[in-house]
Design a protein that fits this description.
Helix content of chain A: over 70%
Radius of gyration of chain A: 17 Å
Distance between the termini of chain B: 74 Å
Structural class of chain A: mainly alpha
Order of helices and strands of chain B: EEHEEEEEHHHHHHH
CATH topology of the largest domain in chain B: Fumarate Reductase Iron-sulfur Protein, Chain B, domain 2
CATH topology of chain A: 3 helical TM bundles of succinate and fumarate reductases
CATH architecture of chain A: Up-down Bundle
CATH class of chain A: Mainly Alpha
CATH architecture of the largest domain in chain B: Orthogonal Bundle
Number of domains of chain B: 2
Keywords (chain B): 2Fe-2S, 3Fe-4S, 4Fe-4S, Iron, Iron-sulfur, Metal-binding, Oxidoreductase, Tricarboxylic acid cycle
Largest sheet of chain A: none
GO molecular function (chain B): 2 iron, 2 sulfur cluster binding; 3 iron, 4 sulfur cluster binding; 4 iron, 4 sulfur cluster binding; electron transfer activity; metal ion binding; succinate dehydrogenase (quinone) activity
Number of strands of chain B: 7
Bound molecules: FE2/S2 (inorganic) cluster
Number of helices of chain A: 4
Cofactor (chain B): [4Fe-4S] cluster; [2Fe-2S] cluster; [3Fe-4S] cluster
Distance between the termini of chain A: 41 Å
Shape of chain B: globular
Structural class of chain B: alpha+beta
Order of helices and strands of chain A: HHHH
Pathway (chain B): Carbohydrate metabolism; tricarboxylic acid cycle
Strand content of chain B: 5-15%
Helix content of chain B: 25-40%
CATH superfamily of the largest domain in chain B: Alpha-helical ferredoxin
Family (chain B): Belongs to the succinate dehydrogenase/fumarate reductase iron-sulfur protein family.
Number of helices of chain B: 8
Radius of gyration of chain B: 24 Å
Shape of chain A: elongated
Largest interface: A-B, 11 and 14 residues
Strand content of chain A: under 5%
Oligomer: heterodimer
Chain lengths: 110, 255
């Protein structure tokens, strides 16, 4: 249940990110100055924290997506779904432990 | 006559008292003739640890409020009439023991979700049985058995669909499914389980038909593997597993 709820929430969040991302990238066709202005606002610490959330959402969605593929295609998948969920959480924690400190140092050292 | 003599010195044996508890039940009541909205009503009942929620409901109905309405027939987990949401989880009232619940807090009892509420704990089961009927849950053989003979099936072939024969159609699984809550058209786990029971039966020849029916937009592909149905099933059927097997059979084009 919670794996599904998180998968939905992260999925919708990623969708909205992509929407904004396509819009801001498309700005470069409008005028490079406008593009630079918008991208410049992304360099703030608040956006840096937002990026942590974004990466967290993508990493969870990716790992849990693999889990769902295994549930659908591996004959023992449903039996080990709980264990696989804990593995997803563990992999997520490991990835985020690797990413977050490095990223935040970058964000706050500018 | 040594056994019949009462030893004066020994303390009189205390009759064994079985401890009972006051349990608070909060039941979601709804009377369509009076209420606009369902409302939560509390009842205090004296219960033993080995009593079931069904006994508590009986006590309320028989001793406190005769208007409380719920379904039950067998009272032993066979007929599947009394699936309800107990503390937020779908269970059979007749199989939920007081001792397995935390009675320091009130116990919340309400009707199963996703089906139209009729009164108190009773929902309209028609949409549920409609989906069940749609998957043709009966044997469709293409040949007749030899005169005076039975249809032979090996032990292994029988074991293939054993798990899904256990379904009692209580709707605990279907009404625990978040997809079914938002999309009442979805066949739901119970219908798929009962299709599985015949799709994988070696004596049946209409697997193709059923796989076609379930390949629908509202069929097995609606399943998002939330595993709520597997957790809810009072018979312990591996519901999500059965759905996954049907999905694979559709992709393969045969059971
Ligand atoms: S009353 Fe028959 S299953 Fe509970």
């Amino acid at each position: 249940m919670w794996s599904w709820v998180l998968h939905r929430i992260t999925g919708v969040a990623i969708f909205f990110f992509l929407l904004v991302h396509i819009l801001d990238t498309a700005l470069v066709r409008v005028s490079p100055e406008a593009y630079n202005a918008v991208i410049g606002t992304y360099q703030t610490p608040i956006m840096g924290l937002g990026e942590v959330a974004l990466v967290g959402a993508i990493v969870f969605h990716a790992f849990n997506g693999l889990r769902i593929i295994l549930i659908d295609f591996w004959s023992k998948g449903t039996r080990y779904q709980k264990a696989m969920f804990y593995v997803v959480i563990a992999l997520w924690v490991i990835t985020m432990l690797g990413f977050t400190p490095r990223h935040l140092i970058n964000v706050f050292s500018h | 006559m040594s056994t019949a003599v009462l030893d004066e010195a020994a303390p009189a044996p205390t009759p064994e008292v079985i401890e009972s508890f006051t349990v608070t039940l909060i039941v979601r009541r709804y009377n369509p003739e009076v209420d606009e909205q369902p409302k939560w009503v509390d009842y205090d009942v004296e219960m033993f640890a080995t009593d079931r929620i069904l006994d508590a409901l009986h006590k309320i109905k028989w001793e406190q409020d005769g208007s409380l309405t719920f379904r039950r027939s067998c009272a032993h987990g066979i007929c599947g009439s009394d699936a309800m949401r107990i503390n937020g989880r779908n269970r059979l009232a007749c199989k939920t023991l007081i001792k397995d619940l935390d009675i320091s807090k009130p116990i919340y009892v309400e009707a199963i979700k996703g089906l139209p509420l009729e009164k108190d704990l009773i929902v309209d089961m028609d949409p549920f049985f409609e989906s069940f009927r749609e998957v043709q849950p009966f044997l469709i053989p293409s040949s007749k058995p030899g005169a005076g003979k039975e249809r032979i099936q090996s032990v292994a072939d029988r074991a293939r669909f054993d798990d899904t024969t256990k379904c009692i159609l209580c709707a605990a699984c279907t009404s625990s499914c978040p997809i079914f809550w938002t999309d009442g058209q979805y066949f739901g786990p119970a219908a798929i389980v009962n299709a599985h029971r015949f799709i994988f039966d070696s004596r049946d020849d209409a697997a193709k038909v059923r796989l076609d029916i379930l390949n629908d937009k509202e069929g097995v592909w609606r399943c998002r593997t939330t595993f709520n149905c597997t957790d809810a099933c009072p018979r312990g059927i591996q519901v999500t597993q059965a759905i996954a097997e049907v999905k694979q059979a559709i992709m393969r084009g045969k059971p």
